[in-house]
Amino acid sequence: MKKKTVFILMMALATISASAQNPYIVKTRGAKKAAVTKSTATAAEDEAEPEARDFIGENFRFYSLCDWQEGMKFMVMPEKYDLIVNTFCDAATGKEVSSGRLRHKIMIYKGHTETPEGFALVNFLCTDDNKNYYYRIPNGTFEDYCYGKLGVPTLAYLGDVDIAREKLIGMKLYTKATRYRVDTEMDGDGFEEISVPLNEEVTVRAVGAGSRSCPVKIIVEDKKGREFYQSVAMSKTNSGMRDDEFIMDKAKFLFAGSFELADANIAASNEYSKYIGRNVYTKYPTKMENASGVMVGIARLSTFRIEKIQTQNGTRYVRMTLKSTNTGETFVKQVTFVNEDIAGDIDGAREDYYGYLFGAGIPEGLKGLSEAKRKMIQEGRVAVGFTKREVRMAKGEPDKHASAENGRTDWIYNDGTIVKFTKDGKAFKTEHH
Q1: Is residue 258 situated within a structural domain?
Q2: Which of 362, 396, 414 is the endpoint of a domain?
Q3: What is the DSSP string of 269-320?
Q4: Residues 320/306, Cβ–Cβ less than 8 Å
Q5: pLDDT score of 163
């Protein structure tokens, strides 16, 4: 059997054995067992997110290698490169040890030493096999090396994972990204990406080890029972990345780029509290997201009660939850309260402006109407028997009035519609030219 094949099989067996009893390895529902795993993790797994809020500053301290204290706990989480270039040596023999064999093993920091030859060593005790290992710093002294970003390759800092477990499990969060992951392998690193709405309320179900760069894997569940995760950097201890590398699309790999605490979200929404509980109606047809997350058409003059408004960081939009006063169904609409004067409503941009889309209250004329008549009015159609108020709700003010015999009037619209009224104001004939 070729050496490469043997190595892959040994790595797979070590992974299965470790994950079977390692409480730091957590998976979303649906992950499958795999005899031989093939990692789909990419360099993006090693990235993180933007500056965090007080939650991060108060709970997750950054430790440079110079500040590491004996007893700090790490897990070996090798990336593809680490499986080619070994990181650790066995302290008893001085021989290199395969990163695949140490995969998912827990290392306790035991300080640093210097050999008689002048090599600086970073020392660890592995709690899984009770053996000592060391990482030899490539060049220079420990003091020269420890201030850089490189740290010790493969090691994910478990101190952040432990704190995140204590603080986050069971908590409500809101999503701040639109792409998250679900596991596809129980014993490997396989995953697929899924789309998730912004500002979706989720509950933290599990916290475990993610990757070296993003050590904290946070598994959440939405209201439909769907589980997904993001691996994020908290303190950035030993992440191997600079702060300025957590930008653009990689910002989601910071906690604040993927999640927001519920209390922060609610506090940010307080400025919109005066709108909560208001009855409104749609002035124009629009689209909203229903309870199943599907975009559906909403007719004009549809009536709602505003249930909740949530802000969306970094945008001028809010996520408004509305409940139909007719059917009781719940919908979500992203709107802005910032009025941008866009000539001609280019690409429907004004349609998202709250003041343009919604009217206050419930239109008086809709009360007591049959469902058929209400539907016609919402669709902008008129029929024989309509009153002038009902025609006005359906078509607006006429473009022309024409007096006819016996005190009658005709309303003429530029779209070719003519409505003929009797003397007492009932439509007895409609025409369309």
Answers
A1: no
A2: 362
A3: TGGGGGGTT-EEEESS-EEEE-TTS-EEEE-TT-EEEEEEEEE-TTSSEEEE
A4: yes
A5: 95
Query: Where among 309, 338, 362 does a domain terminate?
Result: 362
Closest CA to 153 of 130, 174, 137: 137
| Lowest-confidence region among 26-35, 208-217, 226-235 | 26-35
Number of domains in the chain: 2
Q: Tell me the average pLDDT of the chain.
A: 82
Distance CA 125, CA 131 (A): 6
Q: What is the pTM of this model?
A: 0.61
Q: Looking at the structure, do residues 275 and 346 belong to the same domain, yes or no?
A: yes
Say if residues 232 and 257 touch (Cβ distance below 8 Å): yes
**Do 278 and 343 share a domain, yes or no?**
yes
pLDDT of residue 268: 56
The whole-angstrom separation of Cα 322 and Cα 279 is 9
DSSP conformation class of 151: -
DSSP characters over 399-422: SEEEE-GGG-EEEE-TTSEEEEE-
Mean pLDDT over 239-245 rounds to 83
More confident residue, 214 or 1: 214
Q: Which of 367, 363, 339 is nearest to 351 (CA)?
A: 339
| Inside any domain, residue 408 | yes
The tokens for 113 are 């030493």
User: Where is pLDDT greater, at 261 or 183?
Assistant: 183
Task: Provide, for the chain, the percentages of residues in helix, strand and coil under a 3-state DSSP scheme, each rounded to the nearest 5.
Answer: 25, 30, 40
Does the pLDDT value for residue 69 go beyond 90? yes
Are residue 333 and residue 282 in the same domain, yes or no?
yes
What is the dihedral sign for C-alpha 364, 366, 369, 373? positive
Q: What is the pLDDT of residue 314?
A: 61
In a domain, 33, yes or no: no
CA–CA distances in Å: residue 359 to residues 190, 310, 327, 333, 349: 49, 20, 19, 15, 18
Does any domain span residue 279? yes
Question: Regarding beta strands 88-90 and 131-136, do their DSSP bridges make them parallel or antiparallel, or are they unpaired?
Answer: antiparallel
Which segments within 199-238 are labelled E, that is strand? 201-209, 216-222, 227-232
pLDDT of residue 25 exceeding 60: yes
- The better pLDDT of the pair 189, 94 is held by 94
**Closest to 195 (Cα-Cα) out of 174, 175, 224, 214:** 175
What is the residue range of 377's domain? 368-432
For 260-298, write each residue's pLDDT tens digit: 887 666 655 667 878 888 999 888 888 998 887 788 888
* Angle, CA of 72, 74 and 75, to the nearest 5°: 165
